[in-house]
Each structure stands twice: as C-alpha cells, then as structure tokens.
C-alpha cells in the first residue's frame, strides 16, 4: 500500500546479516506490522505463490508486550512449516480484547510452493526490535537460516 506522497505505508524487506537474514517490517498499526513480519519471514525461504487451493491454520499469541507477540507469531510460521509441511501464503490477524492477537494463516502444501532456501530454525532475541514512531510501527528480527 502506498500513500499519496509515494511512501509505502506497509511492507517488509530482507537484509543480509553475516550468516543470517534480517526481516524488517512496517505498518501504520501494530497488528498489520506483525502480519508483514510473518510475510517477511516466509520470504526468507519461499517465493509468493498464487495457490489454487489453500487451507487455513489458526494462529494466536498473547496477551503480552508487542515483542512477545512478534516472537510468538514468527515461531508459529516456523512451526507450521517445519511440523505440518505447509507454507503460509496469507495472514489474517486481529487484536483480541485481552491484548493478544488471533486469526489464521492461509497455507499451501510445501510441495506446491516455490522454496528458495532452508526453513529458518531460530530467531535471535538479542537483535529483536519493535517500536512505534511518527505513526508507523516497525520491527526488526534476525533469523538464523
């Protein structure tokens, strides 16, 4: 999504980091920022696909601080890929009344996705960042690939 000034309102990008990868995400609100971070994590190991068939897998985190929500949601992406053999392609999240996040991930079978790298196993808690500044939420996490 791009604003009238041309500045991207939400999105994610990957950046190299030694033997790891950095996922950065941003959005005007916390929950969309978390969803962008999840999409960024998937981009580390799979290219976007327009699947003919998806199924949904529930996902939730919290309640807790934003950084705990971020880690929990990213760990869910790793879990469903590693254990269930699926690749998330879309995320639908909403804030819960108790301060958590809940929703679902649309997933495809791993064999139906374009895999471009190994599935991450570990997130670095040392370099984890999540903050809001001037109406934009931003997060950054180092992923061990």
CATH class: Alpha Beta
* Helix content estimate: 10-25%
- N-to-C CA distance: 29 Å
Shape: globular
- E-strand count: 9
Going by CATH, the homologous superfamily would be Archease domain
Q: What fraction of residues sit in β-strands?
A: over 45%
State the major sheet.
4 strands, antiparallel
Structural class: alpha+beta
What string, H for helix and E for strand, traces the elements in order?
EEHEEHEEEEE
Spatial strand arrangement across the major sheet: 1-2-9-8
Number of domains: 1
Mean pLDDT: 89
The CATH architecture designation is 3-Layer(bab) Sandwich
The name CATH uses for the topology is Archease, Possible Chaperone, Chain: A, domain 1
Rg for CA atoms: 15 Å
Low-confidence stretches: 1-6
By DSSP (H or I, 4+ residues per run), the number of helices equals 2
Structure, briefly:
Helix content is 24%, strand content 46%. The chain has 145 residues and is an alpha+beta fold. It has one domain (11-144): Archease, Possible Chaperone, Chain: A, domain 1 (3-Layer(bab) Sandwich), CATH 3.55.10.
